[in-house]
Design brief:
Number of strands: 9
Number of domains: 1
EC number: 3.5.1.88
CATH architecture: Alpha-Beta Complex
Family: Belongs to the polypeptide deformylase family.
Largest sheet: 5 strands, antiparallel
Keywords: Hydrolase, Iron, Metal-binding, Protein biosynthesis
CATH topology: Peptide Deformylase
Number of helices: 4
Strand content: 25-35%
Mean pLDDT: 94
CATH superfamily: Peptide deformylase
Cofactor: Fe(2+)
Function: Removes the formyl group from the N-terminal Met of newly synthesized proteins. Requires at least a dipeptide for an efficient rate of reaction. N-terminal L-methionine is a prerequisite for activity but the enzyme has broad specificity at other positions.
Strand order of the largest sheet: 2-3-4-7-8
Length: about 200
């Protein structure tokens, strides 16, 4: 089932996600619904707060980036085959010189900005069977993981922008929170006026 994606301005996007256990209600269905929602919105990642749940789950599927010619064949192959469900994730280390990449977010449609992040990340997480993994990612996979991890920490990519950039996009963000935007996927807007 495709769920509505929560728009910028909703308080749930600012909450630090709670850890969950394997007996979380309807977890398998939730993960399937999140996948459907992410693919339905043409996303490469989706975190539980983006569907209104302040819990520590996010999904990543970088396959759409695999078509991009700017990557080597080896990188394209890695991107094509990277699909993960991260539960109760914790970033252990981020290393390297920060690099810029133009990021967007399903909760903040039509806003894309260069964000600086470190290129290599070590993350500990549980998969959908609650098996523990500690893995190291770099490049674009690391970036997508960092972006989605930020969501379960209550952080948005716009928080990482300069104060000037934030001022320049403020009007757009207000319009998004009021639902004054056209998107081709289901969204839930926090400040949209209810029709009487």
């Amino acid at each position: 089932m495709i769920l509505p994606i929560v728009a910028y301005g909703d308080p749930v996007l600012r909450k630090k996600g709670a850890h969950i256990t394997k007996d979380y209600p309807n977890l398998e269905a939730l993960i399937e619904n999140m996948k459907e929602t992410m693919y339905g919105a043409f996303g490469v990642g989706l975190a539980a707060p983006q569907i209104g749940l302040p819990i520590r789950i996010f999904l990543v599927d970088t396959e759409p980036f695999a078509e991009d010619d700017e990557f080597t064949e080896e990188e394209q192959e890695q991107l094509k085959n990277f699909q993960r469900t991260f539960i109760n994730a914790e970033i252990l280390e981020e290393v390297g010189d920060e690099w810029a990449f133009n990021e967007g977010c399903l909760s903040i449609p039509d806003v894309r900005e260069d964000v600086f992040r470190q290129p290599k990340v070590t993350i500990k997480y549980q998969d959908e069977n609650f098996k523990i993994h500690t893995e190291v990612y770099d490049g674009l996979i690391a970036r997508v993981v960092q972006h989605e991890y930020d969501h379960i920490e209550g952080i948005l990519f716009t928080d990482k922008l300069s104060s000037l950039k934030k001022r320049l996009i403020k009007g757009k963000l207000v319009n998004i929170s009021k639902g004054k935007i056209k998107v081709d996927y289901r969204m839930r807007f926090p400040l949209m006026k209810k029709k009487r």
